[in-house]
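My current task is to audit a protein record that another person submitted. I need someone to confirm that the token line plausibly describes how this chain folds. Take the sequence as given and treat only the tokens as open to question. This is what I was given:
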Amino acid sequence: MGDVHPDLFSTPLTPKKNEIVAYSHGEGGYDEGKRFFEDMLKQSFREIHRVLKPGGIAVIVYAHKSTEGWETLINSLLDSNLIMTGAWPLKTEMAGRMRAQESATLSSSIYIVARKITRQTTGFYHQVREALKDHMDRKLERLWQEGIGGADFFIAAIGSAIEVFGKYEQVMDYEGNIVRADRMLEDVRRIATEYAVRQILHNGFAGEISDLTRFYVLYRWNYGSAKILFDEAQKLARSCGIDIAREWSGGGFIRKEKEFIRVLGPEDREPDDIKHREELIDVLHRCLRLWEKGKRNDLVTFLQESGFGKSEAFFRVAQAISETLPNESKEKKLLDGFLAGRERLREEMKMVTQGELL
């Protein structure tokens, strides 16, 4: 290769000046680095489009856990005139690597197949969105059957959506505004969120739980106990219909730590701190702490008075959360212990009720 491209092999180390990375770049810092990354990525895809024969295929491998990273990729692909005809996740990362143990990392990369073929001129977003939902309903079902879960599921959903969105030179709403990747990704996340909740709860009681409970279940399924960047948490919260800024200041289970968001587990809270909260997750956390401390009478009384002891949805949510967590999780151990004694708790609540009637 050195004989063919001597300029590329003239230095002892790989040249870094034109490397396409989003690090701080010169005097402009992070913003300049981001602009450089986006511009160079767009140029690269346009060059791929230029050198491809008509009908030619390009395979692009991409892995990024943030929606912002995907917005950059999708907009660059759309502007290059390449058409995305397929996208599929392949496991490329070791689950046990050091960085994956305490962070919300991906285990898959998305392999995107793009072609140099003629695109349709303009798509109207109302129609594109309907086509997107039909396409994703089929694709999400297959992803679920293939065992794709957690953060990989949402990223794979984004990859699938590109197949529909990328057919057009531009997508417009009825007001004439050009629809870019950020708006499309909001719809994708909402569709994937609704599907995931139904599946996690085994198609039962999804309509009975609150938006905040839905957020908690999805957060645990996506990220476990890891903390994530505020931007990602905000987008997940928005897909669940909650205002995350209001929640972290309300003394609930959502906490902001600098630029990160962390979702507290039962082991991070004391029973008395959540004694008067009525949200399902808060009630569940208090039950788990009372069970852990061996306060059986308090637990039975609390379940009875709160009304959650008679709620099948309450126990189904607890079971669903347990199923999303790894075996070594402290929260999972508390949940499994609590759920193992569910029938006995119900019997004790009946005895309390009968005693009150007598």
Notes: Residues 97-103 have pLDDT under 50 and may be disordered. The first strand starts at residue 57 and ends at 62. The two ends are 91 Å apart (CA to CA). Residues 288 and 334 are 6 Å apart (CA to CA).
